[in-house]
Every structure is written in structure tokens, then in C-alpha cells.
Amino acid sequence: MPHSVPVPPTGFQSIVLCGPGVSLNTFTSNPEEYPKCLLPIANRPMIYYALDFCRRMGITDVTLVTPPCSLAPLQAALRQNPHLTSLPTPSVIAPKELEMTTGTAELLRLPEVQNCIKSDFLLLPCDLVCDLPGESLLEAWMVSGGEKGRRNGLSMYYQTQGREESVKGETADFVAVAPLEQSEAPTVSLSELRAHLSKLVLSMSMDTLKEKLENDKGFLMRHTLVDKHAQVKMLTSFRDAHIYILPHWVKDMARLNEQFQSVSEDLIGWWAKSEWQRGLSEKLKINEIFQSKPRGHSIDEDDSHDGESFDGEGALEEEINLQGMSTTKATSAPKSQVEESAEASHLPPMLAYVQRSKSPFTRRVDSSALLLSTSLRLAKLESIEEVGRVAASSFAHSTKIAYPQGIAQRCTVTKADCLLDINTTVEEKCVIKESCIGANVQIASGARLTRCLIMDGAVIGSRAQLTGCIVGRRSKIGRESVLKDCEVQDGNVVPDETDAKNEKFMVFGGLDDHDMDDSDGSEL
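and the corresponding C-alpha cells:
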């Protein structure tokens, strides 16, 4: 008999961070009118997927956190967009001190957010698309134990390579995990969950890792990590999904550590280290949170040369038995001393849920390439009309072509890999393959679209040829234009007979992709 799906603990809540999306600046340069969280992914607003994830987990107490400039359009969408009105209505707060460059950990210290956190909570980004049954994550966290008031944390990581929706140059993180002790692992009935669960011991962005490799001329390992964990697996092709299940006490950890800027790298990364690095829990004031007596010793500020050096390449993916390597065995601190230090602080561990399989679908959509690839991947899902509600994916649309009477008879639309929204018209002799077409779009005769994302209200001129393009809302592509891998900003007009490749068409100057990027999670 299958085990029952748990409901969230009483008072459990979710907080969704709705940031500016500077890495999607072609379409988010005017957050006062159209913030990142409303960008369409497969013809649904981006925020829909995070809210739907919460709904499927059974979480009804959901709060969206947005900069003040984006409050009005977000509230309007929650009231009017049919995809959003079909979901439970979340609360929205816009802290007055919240700016576009505010870090995610800085955000948790704002008074409005501190006051909002009343219990253990789920922290999500607005750009998450995850088909994983959320109750699996919640169940893994609930059965992982932890004393009352000292619960563990849980973060999730997914594979970025070798998937249909993978894109060239996609951001990954550096993650190191260790096996759970027998007493820390879930029960036998949850063996499937146990296969995905590990103890997080290191977590940082790939940029930070590269800086360390360059500065230290290798990857240096502390003796205390080796003493604490005999086996450590290091992953370089996985990405932090920014799905965090956090206990209530983390609210105080964020408040007391004003040096924290990023949740993923600072709060989670330092928490993971403090489980094995002597004195770190005191420096991070975790002991103070738990009202523990100070142990009276500080962190060795520079003992990074205690360990072995790694080249940072292929060896990072291998299973490393560090305890069996004589050159990495500590001589200055016996293992019992490390264990006593950990036991004295009673520090709850940070767990990692590493999704190794290719399904279910999980992605953070924080770049134009991922916006396109994710939309096209979801467009291939069979509709509810085709397979029925029970068999259909949670992301499936009711029908692939919402307005069939708008499609001319003498044209080709590959229904298996396309989505066409309401009131979209396609004239004769058009060819549309593997594309997402928004609502109220007009596609003139003879146009050819392949692997494109066309947002609401756009106009595609006659005999235009678009391949791998993203076309913003209410923009217009001139007749006989040939565009490949281009982005067109909202409201822009591309002149007739334009021939372009890998270009951004913007009404006014914006930041280049290399100027700012929030893909590492350091900004809201």
C-alpha cells in the first residue's frame, strides 16, 4: 500500500522572490510596466509556475516579494490574467528599501520580510519551472529529522547537461555532497527519496570556484572536511534550483549576519560549511540563535593549505574516498575533537536533494536562451484535450491551438510541437514549426517561423522568415525580413527586408548581457 502524501506542517508558508531579471533585459528593461515575473513561458506568465508548484505542494500561505516599482503590474496580473486567477491568490509585499540590486540574503533582513516569516518556510525564485512533485521534497525534509526548533534545511539541485532543453553555456554551480549517516536517512519506505538525498558540504557559483582555482593554484581542501566526511562527491554540471525548505530559525541567521548578500552562496554555502568547519557556527552566530554557550574559540582564518590541491577538471566528477588518501589525513586535530565540536553545537545539517534523472522537468528560466528552450520544451507536451486530464502533464494546456478558426486552410502548423494562444490569426501559405505563439498575434501570408517565441500582440509581416527568435509584445517584424537567433524588444518595429543574425532590436539602449547578470542568485 503506497504511503500517504504528507500535508505541509501547520503554519508552513512559501515566499517567492520576484526580481528584476537583468539577464533578460531585452524584455524586462521597463519593470514598472512589465516585470520579469510576468514574462510568458509557453504562453503562461512566469510566476504561474512558482504558484502552481506551491499549490501542488498544498501550501496556501504564499507571499510574493517584489520591488515597489513592479507592485502595480503584478497586482493587476493577479487580478486579471486567467492563468493566475485560476490559482489561489497570494499576498504581495513591496518593501520600500527593496531595490533592483538588493541581494537575496539582504532581502531576508528587510523588516517587512522578517515580519512576514512566521514559521518554517519554502523559499522560491519566480523563474522556477519544476514538474517534480513538491510533496516529495517536503516529505524528504519532514522525515530528515532534527530536534524541535533545530530543524534541518533542504536545497535542490538539477542536472544541466544532456537534456533536450539544455542550452550552450548554461550556468552551473559547484556542489559537494556527502552520504547521510544511517541515523540521518529516511525510513526504508522512502528509499526512493533517500537515493536523492545527501548532506551538503560545499556550495558556490562556478565563477567563485574559478576564482579560487586561479588564486590558490588548485582546489584546496581543509583537513576538517576530510575528518568529518570520508566520502565527498563533487559535482560541476548541476545547478542550484533555488528551492529551499528552511526552518524558522534561519530568519534570525539572515538577520544577524549582515555580511550575507546571496542566499545560495552565503547563507546556504556558509551553513553547509559550518557543519564540518570548527568554530564557524559560532562566527555565524548560529549558537547564539540556539542559545548555546560560546565555546570560546574562533575560526582559523587561513588554514586552507591543510588540504590537497585538485585541478578542477574531470576529477571533480569522480567519487573521492578522501579518508583513504594518507596525504589528506589531519594531524593537528583528532577526529574525536571535530566530532565533539559538532555535537556540542547541535548544528542541524543542510541537506541536498540532487535530481540526477532526466525527469521530471526542472529549470530556472533566467536567460533568453532558457526562456526559449523551456517554452519550446513545454510546447511539445500533449494537451489535456488529447490525453485527458489524468494522463496529462501538470504543465499541459487544454488545447494546443486555442483559436483554430484563426488558422487559414492553406498553411502548415505542426500541432505536436506548437502552441497558439487565443485570437491569433495565421494567413495562407505560412509555415510554423516548433514555436510558441501568444495571444492576439497576427502572422501574415507566406511567413515561416521555426523554433520561435512570439509574445502577445506581435505582428509578423508577409514572407518574413524567423528562426530561433524571441519577439516581444506588440512588436512588428517587417515583410520579407530574415532573422536568426534574434531578440526583439516589446513595441519595437523591425524594418522591412531586414537581414540579421544574433542581434537585439531595442527601442532604447539597455545593458549588455555581460554588464549585469542575476543568474548566480546574488540579486533579487
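(Above: one complete record from the training split.) The two ends are 43 Å apart (CA to CA).
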